[in-house]
Amino acid sequence: MRDDTLVQAMHEVLKAVRMLKQRHMTTVPVGALGVLAAIRNHERAGPCHMKDLAAEHALDPSTISRAVAALGRAGLVARTADPSDGRASTLHLTDHGHAVLEGAQEQYEQRLTTALRDWSPQEIADLTAALRRFAHDLINSSTLEAAQ
Prior knowledge:
about 150 residues, mainly alpha, Arc Repressor Mutant, subunit A, about 70% helix, about 10% strand, globular, WH-like_DNA-bd_sf, DNA-binding transcription factor activity, WH_DNA-bd_sf
């Protein structure tokens, strides 16, 4: 594949996502909104540990540790001792963390609704399916390359 059209389109998408995220830089540390959402999702299923977040985001544990520390300083995340392993701690969103995440998601939904206002429901469904497939395939190809 030598056609640069796809690569250029990916750069445009990444730019759009960066611009969308930058609107929340005053309330959420840069790059941490996804970590905040992941902690909330883990909370629903059970205790959330930093090692789980690192694995889920395919990031080094030190990167997650810095993000969690920033979220803690911002009053968005709290750590508590893990009752099953005293050496570990579990992560929980604070009330402020829940409110900030909810507000950010509402803004994301508003921006997406505005951007897609001329799209049909089928076009939105097709885009959603294609993005999910693309992300899945890209992650799987990266995993295969790393294993080789």
